[in-house]
Amino acid sequence: MRIIFTLTLISMFLFSGLAFAQSDTKIGYVDLSRAFDEYQKTKDFDKELEKTGDIKQGQREKLVKEIRNMRDELELMNDSARKKKEGDIEAKIRLLQEFDQDAKAELTKERDDMVRDILKEMNGVIQEYGKGHGYSIIVNDRVLLYGSDALDLTDEVIKILNEGYKK
């Protein structure tokens, strides 16, 4: 009796596996890192962020130059004027440190917001592509141990993203 039951269970699993394999299940994967890097919007934003960083660096260099000039002037002063100038230099150094922290925080926030927006946009494009092309599952390539190149949808997703961005 147990043997018949076991054979019945085994045959059910085999037939259900065959039915699953013969169904219209379409699976694909996307290399999100590559899609993110090759998306023109990402490249444009990186250039914009770099320009902002260069502006901040110029402002920082101006503050550093002011501090150096103040230190050079310090050597030519008498004791009472020197103490006042040292206080001014310390205040300027604190201002520089605050500037560095604020600039770093601002650039980091800007970058994080951009990454979040682009990933959200990519997710929408991938979902729309999957629904439109009858995919049951589209996964990130980072969770993939093996995937045939035929299942790689990355180039198509990049194309859709860039065409949509040009508009």
Question: What are the salient characteristics of this protein?
Answer:
rod-shaped, single chain, Protein Binding, DinI Protein, Chain A, mainly alpha, 78% helix, 167 residues
Major sheet summary line: 2 strands, parallel
How much strand content do the residues show?
under 5%
Radius of gyration: 30 Å
How large is the count of helical segments?
Answer: 5
CATH architecture: 2-Layer Sandwich
Structural account:
- By secondary structure, this protein is mainly α.
- It has one domain: Skp domain (Protein Binding, DinI Protein, Chain A), CATH 3.30.910.
- Helix content is 78%, strand content 5%.
- It contains five helices and two strands, in the order H-E-H-H-H-E-H.
- The protein has a two-stranded parallel ribbon with strand order 1-2.
- The longest helix is centred in the middle third of the chain and has 54 residues, at 79-132.
- 7% of the residues are buried.
Question: How do the strands and helices of this protein lay out in sequence?
Answer:
Elements: H1 2-22, E1 27-30, H2 32-38, H3 40-74, H4 79-132, E2 137-140, H5 154-166
Parallel strand pairs: 1-2
Helix pairs in contact: 2-5, 3-4
Produce a short descriptive summary.
It is built from five helices and two strands; from the N terminus they run αβαααβα. The protein is mainly α and 167 residues long. It has a single domain (24-166), classed as Protein Binding, DinI Protein, Chain A (2-Layer Sandwich).
